[in-house]
Amino acid sequence: MDYVNRLQEDFGHVANFLGVYISEAHAMDEWPLGKIVCLNQPKTMEERLKVAKDFKEKYGWKLPLLVDLMDNNFDAKYASWPERFYVIENGRMELIGTPTTEFGYDRGAVRRWLNYLC
Questions:
Q1: Alpha-carbon distance 72 to 23, whole Å?
Q2: DSSP for 30-67?
Q3: Which fold has domain 2-117?
Q4: Cβ of 118: how many Cβ atoms within 10 Å?
Q5: Cα distances (angstroms) measured from residue 21 to each of 51, 113, 116, 117
Q6: pLDDT tens, residue order, the chain (118 aa)
Q7: 109, 97 Cβ separation under 8 angstroms
Q8: Region of residue 85 (left: phi > 0; alpha: psi -120 to 50; beta: else)
Q9: Closest Cα to residue 117, out of 95, 96, 85?
Q10: Residues near 17 by Cβ (< 8 Å), separated by ≥ 6?
Q11: Which residues contact 48 (CB under 8 A, 6 or more apart)?
Q12: How many angstroms separate the CA atoms of 20 and 62, rounded?
């Protein structure tokens, strides 16, 4: 989360940042991954909103955080699982930062694009 917060601090003068909370990737009742995620998949919008709020507090997430609807429309449309960065410039999707390995990706691509905007 520090990486995302630093991006906003470094480039907030040239870009607007926000996050979208989607369904749990490794909920205990769907696809458990040890003790990394210790909660079940939210079944109601109220539950999902609470999980998103708890996430912001636990990890110090500073960006505005939208929450995908229970039909997972945003995730379905933008293939945001497990994690994506989108750069939209002049109404067009200019960059989609996607994982390049099982556990992450070259986040420098987003930073390089934002440097380009400066």
A1: 7
A2: TS--TTS--SPPP-SHHHHHHHHHHHHHHHT--S-EEE
A3: Glutaredoxin (3.40.30)
A4: 9
A5: 9, 23, 27, 26
A6: 688 899 999 999 988 889 999 987 777 777 656 666 678 899 999 999 999 999 899 989 999 999 999 999 999 998 887 778 888 888 888 777 776 665 566 677 788 888 988 8
A7: yes
A8: beta
A9: 95
A10: 4, 7, 8, 11, 63, 64
A11: 21, 23, 42, 67, 68, 70
A12: 13
Q: What is the 3-state secondary structure (H, E, C) of 67-89?
A: ECCCCCHHHHHHCCCCCCEEEEE
Supply the angle between the helices 2-11 and 108-117 in degrees, to the nearest 10: 10
Residue 59: name the closest of 34, 29, 81, 37 by CA: 37
Interior/surface letters 55-82, b for 16+ CB within 10 angstroms, e for the rest? ebeeeebbbeeebbeeeeebbeeeebee
Token representation of residue 84: 């994506």
